[in-house]
């Protein structure tokens, strides 16, 4: 399995578990607000969807990491937290095979 296939597997799993249409869960590039004289960049979000209950809607993001034997390390988890804050998501998940 490669990283793209793992991302698709995670997309299908989330859709099944949450009872969502798979088309709702998508991969997106979210542009970062541009600051003068600094380069522009975007946040690549592996999986992004909105969930709602009787009270509110929630924006959720997930990072799908396919790894051989290596584990996800702390900087990757902290980066996901920073991206969650930048894109104003309510929830963030790190999904990995290790």
Structure description:
This protein has a four-stranded mixed β-sheet with strand order 1-2-3-4, with helices on both faces. Helix 2 links the parallel strand 3 (57-65) and strand 4 (91-96). The radius of gyration is 14 Å and the shape is globular. The protein is built from two helices and four strands; from the N terminus they run H-E-E-E-H-E. By secondary structure, the chain is an alpha+beta fold.
Write the layout of secondary structure elements.
Blueprint: H1 3-18, E1 26-31, E2 42-52, E3 57-65, H2 74-86, E4 91-96
Parallel strand pairs: 3-4
Antiparallel strand pairs: 1-2, 2-3
* Uncertain parts: none
> SSE order in H/E notation?
HEEEHE
Number of strands: 4
Largest sheet: 4 strands, mixed
Provide the spatial order of strands within the biggest beta sheet. Answer: 1-2-3-4
Structural class: alpha+beta
Terminal CA distance = 13 Å
Task: List the main descriptive attributes of the protein structure presented here.
single chain, 98 residues, alpha+beta, four-stranded mixed β-sheet, globular
